[in-house]
Amino acid sequence: MKNYLIFPVVLFSITVGYSQKTKSAYELASPNGKNKIKFELVKNAPKYAVSHGKTEVISPSDMGFVLKGNEDLSSNFEIKGAKTSTFDETWEQVWGEKKNIRNHYNQLVVDLQQKTGNKRKLQIQFRAFDDGVAFRYVYPKQNVKDSIFIMDEKTTFNLKEDGKAWWIPANRENRDEYLFKDAPVSTLDTVLTPLTIESKSGLALSFHEANLYDFASMTLVNTKGTELKSDLVPWADGVKVRVKDSFTSSWRTIQIGENPGELITSYLVLNLNEPNKLKNTNSYFKPYKYLGIWWGMHIGKYTFWESDKQGATTKHAEEYIDFTAKEGFHHLLIEGWNKGWTPGLV
After folding, report:
1. Which of 58, 95, 203, 278 is the 20 to 30 A CA-CA neighbour of 239?
2. φ, ψ (nearest 5 deg) of residue 72
3. 313-339: per-residue pLDDT in tens?
């Protein structure tokens, strides 16, 4: 959570490092020059690629959407404009392991418009940080005045090489309360983000999203080989996003580290979220530590229900209460089911 009310910020709005190769291709580099995003139109379809130093991370990958009626918002484009800027600030976090956080990136904004039909406009915003890259879509208000129904997002992350992924499944009964497993990227099905990968090149990668507001959340599905595709969580009728006149997607984020520890110290996702709008947070935000019995149930050590290893028994709760008091935890969460509520026995 950002707090601009306490710490001053500095903004630079000058043109920065990208080179225009052709009329339809651009390259954006991070402040230290290591992370690069290449954008281009290939047969009038937007593509992007990502590299770190001399290592190609993401090979040319698809972008765009499919709207209701199978209307394609991923091709037939021309570039109407492109501009770059740089931004550098240091802001104070309300709470967390680090107080002052630097937000430093270079940005490329590309304005696209389709050549025929409704001539829909689409803006793609790219940001290159020293610890990764991000991009999002902005569908501005335009002459087409109607409700927008997004049926699919065509964004792909075409990984150059395989790697070991740490993942949990998407669209399952327990939602995000699964233990992480590791497996090659090429063997994945549909997974939740953040998805962390140790690539064969040795880079540590993490795929996620930021500033999710009034838009469907993103899962990732393996389509072929090491290509992952954005799979938006749908409404009950199959529509992924329904808005009117305009929309701004969440940021698609790729954190890049030369070792796993650099992912831990990355604040890329936090920097892409909106600034804190609450005032006087120090007066009512107080950090606490708590302990809970519930996690032991999720990993199978205890059960919610009556059994020989039921978790939330009175005896077990008393043991946790004593441990919590002894070790200085502020709160204890006890979760489980009373006798008589066990499925099949009610």
Report:
1. 58
2. -90, 120
3. 889 999 999 999 999 999 998 888 777
| pLDDT (average), residues 31-60 | 97
pLDDT at residue 3 above 70?
A: no
Q: Where are the alpha helices (DSSP H) in the chain?
A: 260-264, 268-272, 294-298, 314-327
According to the model, what pLDDT value does residue 296 have?
84
DSSP for 276-339, written as a single string: P--S-GGGT-----EEESHHHHHTTSSBSSSSTTBSS-HHHHHHHHHHHHHHT-SEEE-----T
Over residues 127-152, the mean pLDDT reads: 93
Sheet holding 156-159, edge to edge: 18-22, 25-29, 35-42, 45-52, 55-62, 156-159, 227-232, 218-224, 190-191
Query: Which residue in the block uniquely carries the two structure tokens 């708590």?
Result: 290
Radius of gyration of the chain (CA): 23
**What whole-number distance in Å separates Cα of residue 217 and Cα of residue 181?**
22
Check residue 297 and give its pLDDT: 82
Q: CA torsion angle for 142, 148, 152, 157 (degrees, to 10)?
A: 30
Q: 103 Cβ partners below 8 Å, 6+ apart? A: 87, 88, 89, 90, 91, 267, 271
In 74-194, the DSSP E strands lie at 77-93, 100-114, 121-129, 132-139, 147-153, 156-159, 163-167, 181-184, 190-191
Q: Which one-letter amino acid corresponds to residue 38?
A: K
Counting residues of the chain whose pLDDT is more than 70, the rounded percentage is 92
